[in-house]
Specification:
The protein has 7 helices and 22 strands. By secondary structure, it is an alpha+beta fold. The protein has 2 domains: 291 residues, Rossmann fold (3-Layer(aba) Sandwich); 75 residues, Immunoglobulin-like (Sandwich). The strands form 5 sheets. It has an 11-stranded mixed β-sheet with strand order 1-2-3-5-4-8-9-10-13-12-11, sandwiched between helices. It is globular, with a radius of gyration of 20 Å. The relative contact order is 0.10.
Length: 375
């Protein structure tokens, strides 16, 4: 298929090769001009290959709305990945992804468009093609599952927020590789119902499908996450199905009482869980895998970090079984870097007493750890 790229608009410090950029552009695929918004963090300089995250909008939404609603930009700024927001096509007045919804018959090839977009971006930027990930909201989550089924050789992992699989996607699923899957879904979702749904598979069936495909353990490790925001009316049950092929997992964050929303979004509508930030959780999930499965952490794979007390009211202690200096970074729930430093001994203390009560993310070397700061 022939496709060409047209750069429409660059917002930011356009003429600096190392500056943060938001680029509105398009490619022509199957004779249709298809738009996308690319976010390039300031730390990207093209000298080393970086991951690519595809972030798909929901039905009736848009790339620009998804960029703000399910926001990964602060995380990209610190982690250095490229972030692209593809634009769907219009059907009966709404932008959508052609995933096989009943009554929404279309000949648009969104899988082919996505593949062409990945290939085109790889010619323009230094992308690690073993680390291309797909996520999205609602219809965008459906699209991520469609890619896992039909483009598994190019998609290293997927995460769906309030999405599912249509019967067509399920019937025609032909994933060639084990695919790490994270599903985030509210039990009170009134658009994509958690259980019975005429438009798609019930969420437990989706999880079961990928547990089986990935050859994971059928009994998960399940924990209840801290109820950080008691006013949001929801809690999270986190289930991890481990020991899949290539070391991968299938994971589910069940938002009990949550609606058709993106947890942690700054657009805090009714039913939005604020105990987690879905964007940060998704990146932590993605960052563990490439197309071949669980990443080897090389220098850190045999290293262990114990963090205590956790939860804490003031300070955390890090006990490490190695002595080489290693850097750490502390991030907010929204992915903003709050602290940084160097660990110089096997026992290190970090004072976080000045921070408000919340969940934080501590990155030690290449490993992320959740820290709960309590009152």
């Amino acid at each position: 298929m022939k496709y060409t790229t047209v750069i429409l608009l660059i917002v930011g410090f356009v003429f600096s090769s190392s500056a943060q950029q938001t680029i509105n552009a398009s490619i022509t695929h199957d004779g249709i001009e298809r738009d996308y918004i690319l976010y390039i963090p300031e730390i990207y300089d093209g000298s080393t290959s970086v991951p690519l995250v595809l972030n798909f909008h929901g039905f009736g939404s848009s790339a620009s709305q998804q960029m703000f609603y399910g926001d990964f930009r602060d995380i990209a700024d610190t982690e250095g990945f490229l972030l692209v927001h593809p634009e769907g096509t219009t059907f009966i007045g709404n932008q959508f992804w052609n995933v096989g919804f009943p009554g929404l018959s279309s000949n648009i090839d969104d899988v082919g468009f996505t593949e062409a977009l990945i290939d085109e971006l790889a010619t323009l930027y230094t992308i690690d093609l073993d680390r291309v990930y797909a996520t999205g909201m609602s219809n965008g989550g459906f699209m991520s599952f469609l890619l896992a089924c039909q483009l598994s050789e190019k998609i290293a992992a997927v995460a769906s927020v309030t999405g599912s699989m249509t019967q067509d996607t399920f019937d025609d699923c032909n994933a060639q590789l084990p695919t790490p899957v994270l599903q985030i879904h509210g039990t009170e979702d009134d658009v994509v119902l958690y259980n019975e749904n005429n438009l798609s598979l019930p969420i437990p069936d989706v999880i079961s499908y990928w547990v089986d495909h990935n050859n994971c353990e059928t009994t998960p490790t399940t924990t209840t996450l801290p109820d950080v925001d008691v006013s949001d009316g929801s809690t999270i049950e986190y289930s991890v199905y481990e020991d899949g092929d290539n070391g991968i997992t299938t994971e589910h964050m069940k938002v009990i009482g949550g609606g058709h929303t993106w947890p942690g979004s700054v657009l805090n509508t009714a039913g939005t869980n604020q105990d987690i930030d879905a964007s940060m959780e998704i990146w932590l999930f993605f960052s563990r895998y490439d197309i071949n499965g669980l990443l080897s952490t090389d220098d850190y794979e045999n290293r262990h970090v114990s963090i205590y007390p956790n939860p804490t009211q003031s300070k955390i202690n890090l006990s490490l079984n190695y002595s080489k200096e290693v850097h750490y970074k502390l991030f907010s729930p929204l992915g903003k870097q709050l602290m940084t430093g160097t660990i110089t001994s096997s026992n290190q203390e970090i004072d976080i007493s000045h921070l408000p009560s919340n969940i934080y993310f501590l990155k030690v070397g290449d490993q992320f750890h959740k820290i709960l700061k309590s009152n």
